[in-house]
Amino acid sequence: MATEPSTREAKLIQYLNEAYGKEKELETALKAHISMTTRDAYKKRLREHLKETQQQAKGLERRIKQLGGKAEQIDLPGPDVASDAAAKAVSAANKAVSLAKGPLHMIRGTGEAEKLLKNAKTELWNEFEEIGNYMAIEELATALYDRDTAKLAKEFRRQEERMASFLQKLIPQLAKQVAREEVPARERKPAAATSSSSSSSRSGTATRRRSTTAASKPAAPRRASSNGSGSRAAASSRAKPAASSSRARSTNSRTSSSRAKKS
Q: Which alpha helices (H) appear in the chain, and where do they start and end?
């Protein structure tokens, strides 16, 4: 007779089952997204992550069994004989939802770029949910001294973080592509912004013209300052004739004196 899981093990199984259900759900969505994707790098990364997702589901299933539980796509707290029928019903419903999501993603958006953008947004949302799942499992397992479960959750969390990082770089590229494909070039900038830009351009042109005109005019002669070097130069020029006149009078005086002596 199988031993019932302890309270500790049942709590770990609960969280592992939640993560397991999410991984199984995403397998279907990723397959649909791969079939829609035309970007080679994006398609390649989705295929790689699909393999990671499938391996994660298998790893979670193994760990759940090791803890004495059964892997199910449910949000119920681990295996329970009393809730077995309910678990099967919920599991079947979740599988149906997963299968339905794939085809629905095929009809998203009006153009190819928009479909890819919506898919990438959904994928990023799912990645962060999975990161939260594995972060919780890792900390719970650490608190309950379950090294194997903590190690498993840490490994899977890092895989999800790498995928999330890829999507965070991809989404801006897809958004810009949607703008180019879905909105005519003449309508991408609001009229007010266009008018403001034109006004700024005209103002700049006028300023440059004024600067050019000012630069082409000859420089006006500088007037001598009444208090500066001009005053000193003027005073000097006035002093020179006076000095010359004085020297001339002195010479004439000496000449007259000399003539008087001779006579």
A: 7-36, 40-66, 84-105, 112-143, 147-182, 191-216, 229-262
Q: What is the DSSP letter of 76?
A: S
Residue-wise pLDDT for 80-134, tens only, equals 433 444 445 445 545 554 554 445 444 445 788 999 999 999 999 999 999 999 9
- The C-alpha angle 98, 22, 135, rounded to 5 degrees, equals 165
Tracing tokens 């010479």 back to the chain, one arrives at 251
Cα(115)–Cα(161) distance, integer angstroms: 23
User: In order of start, what are the domains of the chain with their CATH numbers?
Assistant: 7-186 (1.20.1260.10)
Residue-wise pLDDT tens digits, 155-170: 999 999 999 999 999 9
Contact (CB, 8 A) for 83 and 76: yes
Q: How many residues does the chain have?
A: 263
The pTM assigned to this predicted structure is: 0.63
In this structure, the number of other CB atoms found within 10 A of the CB of residue 220 comes to: 6
Residue 225 has pLDDT above 70, yes or no: no
